[in-house]
Design a protein that fits this description.
Elements: H1 3-36, H2 42-53, H3 56-66, H4 70-95, H5 97-117, H6 128-150, H7 159-200, E1 253-258, E2 265-268, H8 269-273, E3 278-285, E4 296-305, H9 306-312, E5 326-331, E6 336-340, H10 341-344, E7 351-356, E8 359-360, E9 370-372, E10 386-392, E11 415-420, E12 430-439, E13 445-452, E14 458-459, E15 461-462, E16 472-480, E17 483-493, E18 515-521, H11 543-550
Parallel strand pairs: 1-10
Antiparallel strand pairs: 1-2, 3-4, 4-7, 5-6, 5-10, 7-8, 7-9, 11-12, 12-16, 13-14, 13-17, 15-16, 17-18
Helix pairs in contact: 1-4, 1-6, 1-7, 2-4, 2-5, 4-5, 4-6, 5-6, 6-7
Bound molecules: the ligand Nc1nc2c(c(=O)[nH]1)N[C@H]1C(S)=C(S)[C@@H](COP(=O)(O)O)O[C@H]1N2 and molybdenum atom.
């Protein structure tokens, strides 16, 4: 036998034992979590702990690299790492079974510790999934490694019989793991179905104050420009939730309490829906949006005016003598976001939103209720799956992102983006429509200018404004000449402030700088005097085809 094959027969069964033990552990953990609390599944809690401890710069890198798939990437990373350790432990078990078992239990300990450290931990029972998983994994490894050890050993149990015994045990373990895993999935799915049913059954009341009718002129007829109202399926998603919380509307509660709350109370969804609702078009922006980035969108939100709710509870804005200057919203998954009480109560359309573009909030956008404060970045205002509002002070409490080097206060910066042409596009010489969006929630957009290369700033044509809290479309007709060109845009807000040129990173309070796009306008081939060129060059693609192909 070659040394490679010898190594493989020595190591292979151990590695397989390790992997099967890990699968068993995970499956049993998922099943236990489904019975106790799905959010306490080991990969979820470990992933959550990793997210919370990831430095802001790495997180920014992950968002940039994986976009909204960052959570899938993280889960996959954890599973691959776990798989590698499982193989190592399985191989180790051949010689040091005690150490291997201890290794498996150590993983259980890590999972249990992660579960307890989660801000939404419900208590000691959160340890159960990791504990049960580790127990099952250790047992599986013990049985499989025991059989594996006999493989190739001399004596009556060596040879074919021991191989059969090992393979039977491996197959039985795999089947048991698959069954437990499938049962866990089904049970978790059933819980989710209760939530889905509660969402499907939710009939949104008509708003007491409907959104102003959108002028048709808010939407320019330019191919490639963002839709004024972002369809729900295209709306960006940014949160730390490894699995989207699926809450049952009937069981949902919102607690309102804290400094200066004379009448603290807890609301059900029906109580909120019985109040007069407002409906507004609002652009939501993420502080992690780079200049020119995709993390913003506009929706028609339906919700309970937050200021009225607070006033009813006895809360006063700091300018009216209120004692609390920070409103901390907490979600079911333990996320905390802090907004200035002054902003929430200054008359803007701050709300507890229940509807988005005419339907109940999708689960990924915070069902059943999320907060929105126009003019503030999402991380200081837009708490999804909200369950608790506490009035406090900025001195007394730092919410989640502030603990991680982001600013305490973060009003949206005036920004503009070129949607079309796309970077490195190759538009034909002649008239080219440059178009995009500009936003300065709370202040509105009064002017947008476009510059070609180092030329003078030229006024873009503004689409109709839908109000100060939404983005505004703009377009500019450019006579493009052959060559490489840099198109730059800048906006001026409703107060007359011109968008800052100074480049700033997203951390700590949002990116700034002008968005520019580089395009190449190809040389136009000299037109033949008469007759199509194609006749002379039967296989040459037309100029038009070439341009399409390179776009
Ligand atoms: N519970 C919870 N709410 C949250 C977040 C979060 O991580 N958890 N992220 C916030 C951030 S950073 C932004 S930009 C908005 C994004 O809202 P969306 O995902 O509905 O677009 O939600 C905010 N609300
Ligand atoms: Mo964000």
């Amino acid at each position: 036998m070659s040394t490679f094959r010898t190594t493989l027969t020595r190591v292979g069964p151990g590695a397989l034992s390790g992997l099967l033990a890990a699968c068993t552990a995970l499956a049993v953990a998922v099943l236990t979590a489904a019975l106790v609390r799905p959010a306490a599944a080991p990969v979820t809690v470990v992933g959550g702990a990793v997210v919370d401890r990831t430095p802001a710069a790495v997180k920014d890198f992950a968002i940039r690299t994986f976009g909204e798939d960052d959570k899938v990437a993280l889960r996959l990373g954890i599973l691959v790492l776990l798989g590698l350790f499982a193989v190592a432990l399985g191989v180790l078990a051949r010689w040091y079974p005690g150490a291997a078992t201890a290794g498996v239990l150590l993983f259980g300990l890590v999972g249990a510790a992660a579960a307890l450290s989660r801000p939404d931990s419900a208590g000691p029972e959160d340890v159960l999934p990791s504990a049960a998983g580790a127990g099952a994994g250790a047992l599986a490894l013990h049985v499989l490694a025991g059989r594996a050890r006999l493989l190739g050993s001399p004596g009556p149990r060596g040879g074919g019989r021991s191989r059969r015994e090992f393979l039977t045990a491996a197959a039985a373990t795999a089947a048991a793991a698959a069954t437990a895993g499938a049962m866990g999935q089904v049970l978790t799915g059933q819980r989710g179905r209760g939530a889905a049913a509660s969402r499907a059954a939710l009939a949104l009341p008509a708003p007491a104050s409907p959104a102003p009718v959108l002028a048709s002129g808010v939407q320019l007829d330019v191919p490639g420009i963002s839709a004024f109202t972002t369809p729900v399926r295209d709306f960006y998603r940014v949160d730390t939730a490894l699995s989207v919380p699926r809450l049952d509307a009937a069981a949902w509660r919102l607690r309102l309490h804290g400094k200066g709350v004379a009448r603290p109370r807890t609301y059900t969804l029906d109580e909120l829906l019985a109040r007069p609702l407002i409906e507004r078009d609002i652009t939501l922006t993420c502080v992690s949006n780079e200049v020119g980035g995709p993390y913003l969108g506009t929706a028609r939100w339906l919700g309970v005016p937050l200021a009225a709710l607070l006033r009813e509870a006895g809360v006063r804005a700091p300018s009216q003598g209120g004692r609390a200057d920070q409103l901390v919203a907490r979600s079911v998954d333990g996320m905390t976001l802090g907004s200035p009480v002054e902003d929430v109560m200054d008359g803007r359309a701050a709300m507890l939103a229940v509807g988005m573009n005419g339907e109940p909030l999708p689960f990924r956008h915070g069902f059943p209720v999320r907060m929105l404060v126009p003019g503030l970045y999402g991380y200081v205002s837009a708490c999804k799956w909200i369950t608790d509002i506490e009035l406090t002070t900025f001195d007394a409490y730092d919410p989640y992102w502030v603990k991680r080097a982001w600013a305490r206060r973060a009003p949206v910066k005036t920004q503009s983006r070129i949607d079309t042409p796309k970077p490195f596009a190759r538009p034909a010489a002649g008239p080219v429509t440059v178009a995009g969006v500009a936003w300065a929630q709370g202040r509105g957009i009064s002017r947008v200018e476009v510059r070609i290369d180092d030329g003078p700033w030229q006024d873009a044509t503004l689409a109709a404004a839908a109000g100060v809290d939404t983005w505004r479309q703009w377009s500019y007709r450019w006579q493009a000449a052959a060559g490489g060109h840099t198109i730059t845009v800048r906006a001026t807000d409703g107060t007359g402030q011109v968008q800052a040129e100074q480049r700033a990173r997203t951390i700590p309070d949002g990116a700034s700088g002008w968005h520019s796009v580089f395009v190449t306008v190809p040389e136009t081939p000299a037109r033949p005097a008469s007759g199509p060129v194609r006749q002379h060059h039967p296989f040459a693609p037309s100029t038009e085809q070439k341009l399409k192909g390179s776009n």
